[in-house]
Amino acid sequence: MVALGVWREFALPAPPRLVAAPAAFSLAVLLLSAAALWWRRTRPVASSLVIAFLALLTPTCASVVSACSVAAHATRHRWLVITHPVTWSIGAGLWAAPDLGDNLTGPVLIVFAGLAGLYLGARRGLARALADRAERERDLLAEQARADERTRLAAEMHDVVTHRLNLMVLHAGALRVAAQDDGVRTAAEELRSAGRQALAELRDLVGVLRTGRTPRIPDVLPDRLSRLVADSAATGLEITLVEHGDADTISPAVRRTMYRVVQESLTNVHKHAPGAHTEITIHCGPSRARAVIRNTAPQATLGAALPASGSGLLGLRGRVEMVGGTLTAGPTDDGGFQVDAVLPAFVRT
């Protein structure tokens, strides 16, 4: 750009000027105009104003480039493109030029450059709008696919799992009525209550899958944890629950996670260590909470194997890590098993 301006200034006949100035001054204006083009993309309006002002002193080819840039890249004040042919004409003193036709070449080039910049800017905006629209459509299609999958899962759970649970509850109720032994009736009633609770939770889950909205989950640790332990103990499992600290100091999200840790651990004891003694220790401190579930080696032989997915601990570890905690699980030296979950006391919900 500087070389083109120098060639125009010194190799060709001197162009008309509004302000007569030495060659050094014209060269300095050329350098400043070329430097201002450095910001033509990041700050097109400021660059355009500087070059338009310098064109009043010495018209340069930078006005052509600046007119195209401000029209193509400016998000506001694109009208500034008209200042370039005006300041060029004023700086060149066109009204005093002997041959007006030859001196109109500069303003005409600037006008065409501005029109080209407007076309490029409109094309770039259209391409950006099409890309945004395509991205929104992809997001909508993905969300629709997730919604369809949730609906399909909800239908399967409602048609298959809910039906089986209803049968279990009905059979337990019939057994409670028909049994003569008090112990059998008590066990049947506990089975029926557990089945009804499972049905209620399953219906909530089916509702979540169908609507995609998560209902408010109640606080579950202080009361339901003892109830969970009592339900497991009623099946013949020997459990000791030891609690340290105030459970009210930890947030509801941590309470729910700790409840799920204890629940899954007791389920694994039922499946893999019948007759084992289980000790649950809960620590609730000001900065963190900890749940340790440790069971001894199984004291009874396994009967019919309960169905297991093999991913319970993996899912549990993911749930714990989601709230910023850590979970370790593994066998102990005495042949038992231990699950140790450390959680922060407070998690934003």
UniProtKB/TrEMBL annotation:
Keywords: ATP-binding, Kinase, Membrane, Nucleotide-binding, Phosphoprotein, Transferase, Transmembrane, Transmembrane helix, Two-component regulatory system. It holds the Pfam family HisKA_3. It is an enzyme of class 2 (transferase). One of its GO terms (cellular component) is membrane. It catalyses: ATP + protein L-histidine = ADP + protein N-phospho-L-histidine. The keyword DNA-binding does not apply. It comes from the Bacteria. Residues 149-212 form the Signal transduction histidine kinase subgroup 3 dimerisation and phosphoacceptor domain. The chain crosses the membrane at residues 18-39, 45-72, 104-122. One of its GO terms (molecular function) is phosphorelay sensor kinase activity. CDD domains: HATPase_UhpB-NarQ-NarX-like. InterPro entries: HATPase_C_sf, Sensor_HK_TwoCompSys, Sig_transdc_His_kin_sub3_dim/P. Its EC number is 2.7.13.3. This is histidine kinase.
